[in-house]
Amino acid sequence: MLPEDIVLHKDRETIWPASANVLLVRDSDGAILVDVGCGYEDTYLRLKEFISAQGLSVADIHTVVLTHAHPDHMGAMRFLLEETSPRIFLHPVEIPLAAEPSRLNHTFDMALPLRYGINPFFLEKPDILEYFSNLCPMARAEATHTIDPDGELVLGRFTFRVVVTPGHANGLVSLFEPESGMLFTADAVGDVVAWYSPSSGGLTGFLAGLDRLAALPASFVVPSHGGISESPLVEVEKTRARLLRREEKIVGELAVEPVSFPELASRVFASPMIAFFPGPQILQCHLDKLEAEGRVRCRGEEDGWRVELA
Questions:
Q1: Are 32 and 175 part of one and the same domain?
Q2: What is the band of 39 on the pLDDT scale with cuts at 50, 70, 90?
Q3: What's the CA gap between 167 and 185, in Å, rounded?
Q4: Does the residue 204 lie in any domain?
Q5: Is 1 inside any structural domain?
């Protein structure tokens, strides 16, 4: 199904902290990688084995396209950059995050739970990089080239249309190749729904990105987490339905009674870990959308951060 000269390296697992799938695109100069996976040595060694199975070496990788600056997509750069010096492409808003990953604390809204008094682990200052370190280590990388958010990306003999799909990351890009109909959705669509946060585009950004993907004449989908599907629109709508089901659960809880933000977070996300991250961030995205639509009212600290139906 994949066009000749494009090969998929699929991770063993799909659920976080699974490493992202990697695309390898051959050309006359060697090869291009789209994403590189987690920053564990064994993950990188599996990537090297995959490259070797294609009759190539790491030295043949002359270009890396990073769909966004998250650890499951670029963590292995720490090892790759020890062996070669490829061109590195990133969306403009992701470039500073890759160069200084501690900035992800802002884009992931790590301080948001503390504002509502949610701190089950008694953290003085939540650090997303510490969270990542035991799950899927992050790396630093300096981009050498910018992905045009409204343009195209030429990789080997293929010309991909860049489709920006925020929500999970402001600069998350999907890539559409019109000749074959291949749509590489990164984290926008896949076997799992990626987390989302207000500072990364929120739920409205996520849904708008799905609209852009649904409008494409794609023949098949290649996600970052999961397998290839020949039903692109079905996969897009499946993701949309999962997002809206979560919204329905939130509205359903509020239909019973007004509750505080922390209480609502604990009802929607039962796990204490998720109730700290990414649960509150996701909940805030939904409340932002619902409040903008006039469907809920969110009270301030003086009212105990109460949330109620409008």
A1: yes
A2: very high
A3: 13
A4: yes
A5: no
Looking up tokens 């697992």 gives 13
- The residue segments making up the domain with residue 224 are 6-241
Tokens representing 66 are 């990073």
Indicate whether 11 and 111 sit together in one domain. Answer: yes
Are residues 174 and 268 both part of a single domain? no
Residue 16 confidence (pLDDT) above 90: no
Residues 172 and 258 in one domain: no
At residue 15, the pLDDT reads 83
C-alpha distances out from residue 66 to 121, 159, 306, Å: 33, 16, 40
Q: Could you tell me if 286 and 305 lie in one domain? A: yes
Burial classification of residue 223, based on how many CB atoms lie within 10 Å of its CB (0-12 exposed, 13-18 middle, 19 or more buried): buried
Q: Final residue of a domain: which of 224, 241, 258? A: 241
Per-residue pLDDT reduced to its tens digit, 208-260: 999 999 999 999 999 999 999 999 999 999 999 999 999 999 999 999 999 99
Whether residue 116 is found in the same domain as residue 38: yes
Cβ atoms of 55 and 25 within 8 Å: the answer is no
Enumerate the H helices of the chain as residue ranges.
41-53, 71-74, 77-83, 95-99, 104-107, 112-115, 128-133, 202-214, 232-256, 261-268, 279-292
Q: Tell me: do 158 and 264 sit in the same domain.
A: no
- Residue 273, pLDDT > 80, answer no
Q: Say yes or no: 198 and 288 in one domain.
A: no
Q: Residue 89 falls within a domain, yes or no? A: yes
pTM of the entire predicted model: 0.96
User: The sheet that has 220-223: what strands, in order across it?
Assistant: 152-155, 158-164, 173-177, 182-186, 220-223
How does pLDDT run across 85-101, given as a tens digit for each residue? Answer: 999 999 999 999 999 99
Q: What is the pLDDT of residues 143-176, one digit of tens each?
A: 999 999 999 999 999 999 999 999 999 999 999 9
Q: The tokens 């999970």 sit on which residue?
A: 168
In a domain, 75, yes or no: yes
Asked if 65 contacts 195 with a C-beta cutoff of 8 angstroms, the reply is no
